[in-house]
Design brief:
Distance between the termini: 69 Å
CATH architecture of the largest domain: Orthogonal Bundle
Strand order of the largest sheet: 4-1-6-5
Structural class: alpha+beta
Radius of gyration: 25 Å
Bound molecules: iron/sulfur cluster
Number of strands: 7
Length: 371
């Protein structure tokens, strides 16, 4: 590490940064509102999503739940429907649970200390520092990908920034630089600089308020920093799902258990193709395991590719019939099963990959009706 907070006078960092922020900050619907509920929702949405992507969802979510009380008293299904499309659904479930906690434990008033905020479900050190500083002016420095990029370049940090020890050093630097008179603006300014000027590729150093003190800029290392050791290859799974259709054209959907990934969302039953299996063999096996019935795969409806954080999938969906004489399907791996009509598909929250399947299914059913 090249420098430390003792060697950089905070005013040489915070002052030009805040002047730049005051003149250049982007408008955002949650910015400068002072409302902890809106700030909290926006911070949760922005954890995995860019500002331009999150903004329409923010408006939609706030349209459904304009206050913390409205969110706390909504049912899970409504919350997941309002979140649908944003992905990482544990964020929505935690937001909902935390809103209930605020209502029951804090009388509906958002807690105003860092530790009480941090204790809410789904709130880690980053979100607690962001809400505490932006909504309540508390002196807590945030550290996210933007902050890591700006500070690792500014200080010329050569160590792998994905290591906990390097992150701890960067957090210390951020704490030392924080402008305690304007902590919320300082935090937003570093993140804004990272998002708009100190970008991952081709940073706009000539227009950067920190260029005079920036080690990476002065030593021509902006393309090399922040340093991250190469990642392992992301696994790629082949997934098969069956769309069981009955004689009345109703479709079978399954509710994922709350404690599993994508918990609380609905899906078509199915699973992973094992080594040595054909996709159809995997489909028949998975549906037998999940529903306790044997199915006959018919038309292959569609193929969907989707990337999650730690793996990728290619999902193939088949229209299926349950074999004559089989018992009623039972929810062996899911929380519950439901037969629904095609027009009801939009009333259930599905993960993104399954939503693409429902769209292909609706087009197929439409064409079949017209034929
Ligand atoms: S001078 Fe360039 S590398 Fe340094 S902080 Fe500014 S934009 Fe980032």
């Amino acid at each position: 590490m090249i420098s430390s907070q003792e060697q950089i006078h905070p005013n040489h960092f915070a002052e030009p940064l805040l002047s730049w922020y005051d003149a250049s900050k982007r408008e955002m619907p949650w910015r400068d509102c002072g409302d902890p509920y809106r700030i909290w929702v926006s911070e949760i949405m922005l954890q995995q999503t860019r500002v331009d992507q999150a903004t329409p969802y923010f408006h939609r979510f706030l349209g459904h739940f304009p206050t913390l009380e409205a969110l706390a008293t909504a049912n899970r299904h409504e919350v997941l429907m309002a979140w649908e499309g944003l992905g990482y659904y544990s964020r929505a479930r935690n937001l909902h649970d935390a809103a209930k906690t605020v209502l029951s434990k804090h009388g509906g008033v958002f807690p105003q200390t860092y530790h009480e905020i941090r204790a809410l479900k789904g709130i880690g050190p980053y979100t607690a520092a962001a809400v505490a500083s932006i909504a309540f002016g508390l002196p807590h420095a945030v550290m996210d990908g933007n902050v890591i990029r700006v500070l690792s370049r500014y200080f010329g940090i050569q160590e792998d920034v994905s290591l906990p020890a390097t992150k701890a050093q960067i957090q210390q630097l951020a704490d030392g630089l924080l402008d305690t008179a304007r902590p919320g603006d300082f935090n937003q300014a570093v993140m804004e600089l990272g998002a708009t000027v100190c970008t991952p590729k081709s940073p706009l150093c000539a227009g950067c308020p920190l260029s005079t003190g920036c080690v990476a800029y002065k030593t021509g290392k902006t393309a090399e920093l922040p340093f991250k050791a190469p990642k392992k290859k992301i696994p790629h799974h082949q997934i098969v799902v069956g769309i069981c259709v009955d004689d009345e054209d109703r479709i079978l959907i399954a509710l994922r258990p709350e404690d599993k990934m994508l918990g609380g969302l609905w899906e078509f039953p199915g699973g992973k193709v094992e080594a040595g299996e054909s996709r159809k063999e995997a489909l028949i096996r998975e549906l037998k395991e999940e529903l306790g019935v044997e199915v006959m795969p018919g038309l292959r409806l569609c193929e969907v590719k989707h990337a999650y954080t730690h793996f990728k999938i290619t999902l193939n969906a088949w229209i299926c019939r349950i074999k004559t004489g089989e018992p009623e399907p039972r929810p062996k791996a899911s929380k519950k099963l439901r037969w629904i009509t095609s027009s009801e598909l939009t009333e259930y929250p599905f993960p993104k990959a399954n939503r693409k399947v429902t769209e292909a299914l609706q087009t197929w059913l439409e064409n079949r009706r017209k034929a």
